[in-house]
Write a structure and sequence with these properties.
By secondary structure, the protein is mainly alpha-helical. The protein has one domain (3-158). The chain is built from 6 helices and no strands. α1 runs parallel beside α5. Bound molecules: zinc ion. Keywords: Hydrolase, Membrane, Transmembrane, Transmembrane helix.
């Protein structure tokens, strides 16, 4: 996907996550959207830096880079939420773009993609970006609302209550 697609994806995802975390739709919701939206959008732009430095869809499109951004806030105390932008960039490249990404680079140069992808120049690129974003938000909603209950139920069954 191109820069426009990644920004569209990051902004729509941030708005959705803002409403997911603070559903009231007031100033706090708006502040949350800005607080997470700026780092998510910057994170979503980061992987394509490898068009200039390294091998595109390999050097900065892999799991070690993502894990680095997940760990960064715990190690250095900043760059929270940037990993969400990097992750959503990968998801959009894998699910929305015809060419995949080398998830296991540098161990393997094999690129992984889904058949749902379209070419970057396709007229349907924006539509596919919106569909991928809706899918991500549906997954995020499940994680936020269903996962705690699922873990609770599993724990309850494990202790035999
Ligand atoms: Zn990319």
């Amino acid at each position: 996907m191109n820069k426009k697609g990644h920004v569209l994806n990051a902004v729509l995802l941030s708005i959705g996550l803002g409403y997911l975390f603070v559903p009231v739709g007031d100033v706090e919701t708006f502040k949350t959207i800005i607080m997470i939206g700026v780092p998510i959008t910057l994170g979503a732009l980061f992987p394509d830096v490898d068009t200039a430095f390294g091998k595109h869809r390999k050097t900065l499109h892999n799991l070690p880079v993502l894990l680095g951004f997940v760990a960064f806030p715990y190690v250095f105390g900043n760059l929270e939420y940037v990993w969400i932008g990097v992750l959503t960039h990968y998801v959009l490249d894998v699910a929305g773009s015809k060419r995949g990404i080398a998830l296991f680079y540098p161990l393997s140069t094999q690129e992984y993609g889904l058949p749902t992808g379209v070419t970057v120049s396709s007229k349907r690129a924006d539509f596919v970006t919106a569909v991928v974003t809706v899918g991500e938000l549906a997954l995020a909603t499940m994680v936020v609302f269903e996962l705690p209950q699922l873990v609770f139920e599993l724990g309850r069954q494990l202790v035999g209550l």
